[in-house]
Amino acid sequence: MAENKNEYSVEYGDPVGMIAAQSVGEPGTQMILRSFHLAGIESTISTSGLPRIIELVDAKKKPSTPITYIYLDGKIGKDFDKATETLKKINEVRMSSIAKRILENFSKGKIKVVLDKQELESEGITIKQVAAKIDKALNLESKVEDNGVVVNMHTRNLKEIRAATINIMKMLVSGVDGAGKATIRRDDKTGEFYLVSAGSNIEGIMQVEGVDKERTTTNDVFAIYRLFGIEAARNALAFELKKTLKEQKISVDERHLNLIADAMTASGSIKGVGRHGLSGEKHSVFARAAYEETLKHLIHAAAFGEVDPMRGVTENILVGKQIPIGTGSVKLAIKKEDMAKIKPASHK
Amino acid sequence: MTSKSDHELVPVHELLSDKEAKALLQKLNLNIDNLPKIFESDAQAVKLGAKAGQVVKINRREGKRDTSYYRVVVEG
Predict the structure, then answer these.
(1) Does residue A194 sit within a domain?
(2) Is the pLDDT assigned to residue A81 strictly greater than 50?
(3) For residue A4, what pLDDT is reported?
């Protein structure tokens, strides 16, 4: 095996980037442009197909459907009840989703939050807990009344009361901020329970007890970059590309995708492949002008006296010179001492 | 110096000594700024205490093969 290794490696001068681009581009034409989601099958739907690929290669700061896969520590992951407990610690619940309505009494300076009993029960939250949360957030005393919480503002200032109401509406009642709605799933192969949430606050989620910090991951590449650095982001990017193509039953050699991920992360941060990323940062003026915004690049180059070393492929095609690929990438030179041995061609 | 991987996605990072870095560049026939980059503020670089100009070796696993990748630490 070791001897064969070199047979599979690329040769010097191989245009690996171009081959990668073609290898991803061709099957990409067969992908579904906009996929339809069937309601009720999955609680968290994610962007897939071509829109997702575009999102990844353009290095969008936030995915349109962030998802976190939360794995649980050994024992918790095997026990459904314990997993559900952890789910409740993570699942993001806002006041607006458990409150039926919020009544403001401006003449008495009171706010009444009417809670939805059914919602409370399904989320496993008691009215007292809600009251305690409001107290802490507003630094006030609130009373529990049959089906809701009454907050006495001790003021009749309309502005203050309205601001407090808006505050209460947006308030986080339980769970992790930015974690999104979480659901429990079961891995069919290992029988392990894991959680899927529709948010990407992976840092906050990892603080929760019982969460496996080594395996918990998200489809938000930038969140991974911020938390674990560029190498993890590169792996996540390659993984997401592979996953998206696999979902569409398209097989592309993973080395092409790894190369794309490598190129996107070579600068130390994640760069898209388009105009504002890799293509826009090419060294050669002609290569940039040949891609997009031709005039802008040419005028800028003329005004600032840019020099094009003509080492790339695009600029050499543009001027009709031999491209530096394969045998074109080597230049021939002759040693001085050999030069002397060559007899000059005789002319008759 | 090696950092323990703290997540599935993070490969093991290793800080090269100046001597090792020099030998590497000679072997690959490269200038130091031809290498891919990693910021000083990068989570893994901070862990290693890497300073700008140093080279970080990354022990990757591609499929069934172990490969190494190198990044030069840059300011930022």
Answers:
(1) yes
(2) yes
(3) 65
Q: Are the Cβ atoms of A228 and B43 closer than 8 angstroms?
A: yes
Pick from A213, A231, A267: CB nearest B13: A231
Domain final residue pick, A145, A174, A203 = A174
Is A6 a residue whose pLDDT tops 80? Answer: no
Query: For residues A175 and A185, what is the distance between their CA atoms, to the nearest angstrom?
Result: 18
B37 in contact with A, Cβ within 8 Å? yes
3-class secondary structure, B64: coil
Torsion of CA A15, A19, A25, A31, to 10 degrees: -160
How many other C-beta atoms are found inside a 10 Å radius of the C-beta of residue A275?
A: 14
Domain housing A313:
285-329
Chain A interface includes B63 (CB < 8 A): yes
Q: How large is the average pLDDT for residues A285-313? A: 90
Cβ–Cβ contact B10 with A under 8 A: yes
A137 and A113 in a common domain? yes
Q: Nearest residue of A to residue B61 by CA position?
A: A235
C-beta atoms of B38 and A217 within 8 A: no
Judged by CB atoms closer than 8 Å, whether chains meet at B9 and A224 is answered as yes
Same domain for A170 and A183, yes or no, is no
Chain A touched by B36 (CB under 8 Å): yes
Q: Check if A231 contacts B (Cβ < 8 Å).
A: yes
ipTM of this complex prediction, to 2 decimal places: 0.92
Q: Do B9 and A227 touch (CB under 8 A)?
A: no
Residues A234 and A293 in one domain: no
Q: Which residues of B touch A236 (CB under 8 A)?
A: 9
Count of CB atoms within 10 A of residue B5's CB? 17
Q: Is the residue at A232 inside a domain?
A: yes
Q: What is the mean pLDDT of chain A?
A: 84
State the pLDDT confidence band at A133, using cuts at 50, 70 and 90.
Answer: confident
